[in-house]
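Section 5.1 Outputs to date
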Amino acid sequence: MNSKKDRMKSKLVSLKPYIYEKPSISAVSLKILILLSVQIAMLFFTKSFDAILVIACSTIGALLASLIHYIFNKSNKFLILTNLIQGIIVGMLLPETYPPLTVMFISLITLIIFKYIFEDTENFWINIISVSIIIAFFIGRNYFPDYQITTDLFTTKNPSVALINNGVFPVYDFDSYVTGWLNSEIFSKCKVTLPQGLISMLWDTHSIIPAFRFNLLTVIASIVLFCDNSFTALIPAIFLTVYAILVRLFFPLMTGGDFNQGDIILALFTSGTLFVAVFMLQWFGTHPMTIVGKIIYSFFAGIVAFFIVGCGTSPIGMIYVVIICNILNLMIRSIEENRMDKIMNRMITAKPVKEE
């Protein structure tokens, strides 16, 4: 009797036979918006109201651009979530000292141009967020901070420790307790010692560029985005690994130091490295589709970051990395599409096998 019921159940057809392998773009966008909102909440908590004002103006500019485009071209959807995210990220990658009205104007104009040039085509190959930051940099270069690492620190073993001791990166009261516990309970078994101030850099670097500040929140965001395949972890993992290895092994040699003495902490916790790896390096439509293409893309990104950003503290270097990788992605996608066309043509022209 039970076997008969089992056979009946096996014949039942679900009303929803199809499932998504990955979350939809709208679901991913909503998740990104929530994760970015947590960082904005931290700006409120730390009373960084100038940064919040810049983010608000860039967001208003992005939404106005989307609204204007919708009014004059009603055939396209008013993509509120995507444009909201673009506006927020633009503001987070700009210094809090940047004039808010100028930020709104840059966000408005660049997004309108982007929509009219690219939105009606299939070639979403360039990250408009990066374009906005580059334009803002050339308009107001004096608002961006300089490199925080000086040439006399290049040959030292741990420039990040020197910067912490010099007060460039603040050290919180809880840092010594957390660092001491980690060293005694965990890292002592591996004969590794965390430097004082690392936890503070992970918590808040106090950079005037908001996206460079809360590294711990960015790490948590990466876990949330990668755990359900909202974004692939392959690209940021390879990118960060290649960049960190190159900095560790070869950067001191380029500056007269010793081999294998580069400061990975400074490279990963400054310049917005983690933020760019999580939120920008694989923005929708700007990365390859195949596994091989993604590996080449992320490996190349790590090499470019090494030569442009160096050991860290760059105010805009990672944005150039994204732009250059967008161009590489365009070439990789072209190869992928040609290869897929050849495969499809072979499948179509293949002779059917005759049944015996």
